Amino acid sequence: MGSLVRRTMGGIVVCVALALGGSGISAADPVSPGAPLPVPQLELTPDVAALVPDPDPFYAAPEDLASHLPGDVLKLRQLPPSYYFPGSALWELLFRTTDSRGLPIAANTTYVLPPNHVPDGPLASYQHIINSLGHKCKIASELYTDDPMHQIREAAGLNIALARGWAVALPDHLGPRMAYGAAKLGGQVTLDGIRAVQKVPELQVQKSKVGLAGYSGGGMATAWASALAPTYAPELDIVGVAAGGAPMNLVKMGEALGANPHPAFGLAMAAALGLEREYPDRVNVTGQLNNNGRWMRQMIGNGCTNEIMFWGLGHSAAEMTDNRNFMDDPDAWKVMEENSLELYPGVPSAPLFEWHSPTDALIPVDSIDHTIQRYCAAGVAVQSLLTPSPDHLSAAVLGLVPGLDWMDARFRGDPAPSTC
Q1: Which of 355, 408, 339, 377 is nearest to 216 (CA)?
Q2: What would be one Pfam family of this protein (predicted)?
Q3: pTM for the full model?
């Protein structure tokens, strides 16, 4: 379809690799890649794809939200025990944070306190891979569901951290709009979630050293939090950041992926819709959709990873619109630039452990390299690990244990090594 369409249609597939570390569609699933969408069999309801509010009133923002500062605790409750984290106590916090337009919003984080934690011991904020558009897919929701399709897949690694006595914060970093793809927002939510847990004395982390960690889409929220921290939350004692497989340039991803059918197109469509939620005055996706696109939006508009992957399997942006200039909008591309860490001039003040596969085809590896080079030039201690795995998924596992060991040394106060 030519370079113009690769660029314009690429906007909708810009975040296709943000969260492929979660789950996918198995060969047994009864969907043929590229099969015609069964649109005529459904009655399209214009507003059915709108975000369904979380039914739990705990997550509703108070009327005086704007009077609070970022990180202020709005609500707090203790949660029942979770089989994911045996022996640990859990809390849920609703706190004030800031959206991508600078407006006050309420977000949440789940806090896990192991029995061997000592007061003011290490605090790790772990940003999960959340590939979703619905509130039912939040970490706080998936902790207590018996649906086997909704699992906390990073629980094994988190239990290693808990066994070391670290308290762990698990922010729902997509924010109250489930704005999948809004990377800078994820960084702000992460930092304000840390502020929130440190303001509650009974959580025992008021003076704790802080570590940040995450992979893929979670790694992107982590990396953004580390870059924003010196100006957004300079008071936090962040001693180390472990970010793996982080997409650092959404523009390059959009230009490279193009409009061809893709097995993970559902995630790409979800990212486009998520950016529209966060930037409704700058990104117009819904208004450009044809009947296929409106049907797809209806099917995934409140979906989690497996639903989104299922309905999008083998489809493409070209099927979703009749407008060949879809997303050929300078302001929409500017939004993607604003959410591309490679283009953000700020640098972290904390040392960084970064890992990825050098042959990862799902993210622009050169953007990682350029960003790390800039950090090194600014004096940041960066240790990079290139995994022997050729792909995005297995690299997540290969870097996890080294990342935890690296973080443990930062909590001990050991000098940070550097491969700069």
Answers
A1: 355
A2: LIP
A3: 0.89
Token readout for 279 is 């930037």
Rounded to whole angstroms, the Cα distance separating 212 from 227 reads: 11
Contacts of 402-408 spanning 24+ positions with Cβ under 8 A:
402/353, 402/355, 403/213, 403/242, 403/244, 403/353, 403/355, 404/157, 404/160, 404/161, 404/164, 404/213, 404/242, 406/240, 406/242, 406/353, 407/124, 407/211, 407/213, 407/240, 407/242, 407/353, 408/164
* Phi (first) and psi of residue 167, to 5 degrees: -80, 150
CA distance 268 to 247: 13
Name the β-bridge partners of 167.
123
Say how far apart CA 62 and CA 68 lie, in whole Å. Answer: 10
Sign of the torsion angle spanned by Cα atoms 216, 218, 220, 226? negative
Please give the helix or strand (H or E) that residue 409 lies within, else none.
helix 392-412
Give whichever of 4-13, 82-91, 241-250, 264-273 has the largest mean pLDDT.
Answer: 82-91
Reading the block at residue 152, the tokens are: 């906390």
Q: Per residue in 296-332, pLDDT tens? A: 999 999 999 888 889 988 888 888 988 877 667 788 8
Residue 176: φ, ψ to 5° = -70, -15
In the chain the domains, ranked by start, together with CATH numbers, are 1-420 (3.40.50.1820)
The residue among 192, 184, 233 whose CA lies nearest residue 334 is 184
Whether the CB-CB separation of 321 and 328 falls below 8 Å is answered with no
pLDDT digits (tens, 9 = 90+) for 206-243: 999 999 999 988 999 999 999 999 999 999 999 999 99
- Give the pairing type, strands 210-215 and 167-171: unpaired
Rounded CA separation 28/41 (Å)? 24
- Per DSSP, the three-state class of 342 is helix
Residue found under tokens 């283009």: 343
Name the residue among 273, 293, 288, 291 with its Cα closest to residue 323: 288
Burial class (CB in 10 A: 0-12, 13-18, 19+), 55: exposed
Rounded Cα gap, residues 286 and 195, in angstroms: 36
Is the CB of residue 151 less than 8 Å from the CB of residue 142? yes
**What is the reported pLDDT for 167?**
98
Angle between helices 155-163 and 392-412 (to 10 degrees): 10
Nearest to 220 by CA among 175, 259, 183, 193: 183
